[in-house]
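<purpose> Linking amino acid order to shape
<body> The protein record starts here
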Amino acid sequence: MTKRANIRITKEFKFEMAHTLLGYDGPCRNVHGHSYELSVTVIGQPIDTKGHVKLGMVMDFGDLKKIVRSEIIDVFDHALVLNREVPEHITSHLSEAFEKVILLDYQPTSEMMVIDFGQRIAARLPENLKLHSIRLRETATSYAEWFAEDQ
């Protein structure tokens, strides 16, 4: 087989996270949680160097797992995520009461989180690979997607 082709590989993850949407006009303005499902797809060419321990792989799924775990899952799993603009008297009380409170510079919607997650993951990928897409499923019927080609 001589033809080189770009191949996409995807690794899926699950994590639990609570958030609130500051200033929102619906029920999500209240603190609530989701069981998120994250799909991360990278694109590249399979390694074709004879004798290479990763021969035939675009990327070892275990290596992709390590990146996503350290950048996303270990950070956000079982955390309460808030917009940094939530009043300080509230965030300081929550930070004292709970171990994992994360303040973000953006509204913690799925749409904004896929942008953030994409930047975090892309920065850690080997040079020969590109982040192709991210899907963050918030509920059984709702998700946000990020595609590199749309940037």
User: Anything to note?
Assistant: The beta strands are 7-19, 32-44, 79-83, 101-104, 130-139, 142-147. The two ends are 33 Å apart (CA to CA). The mean pLDDT is 96.
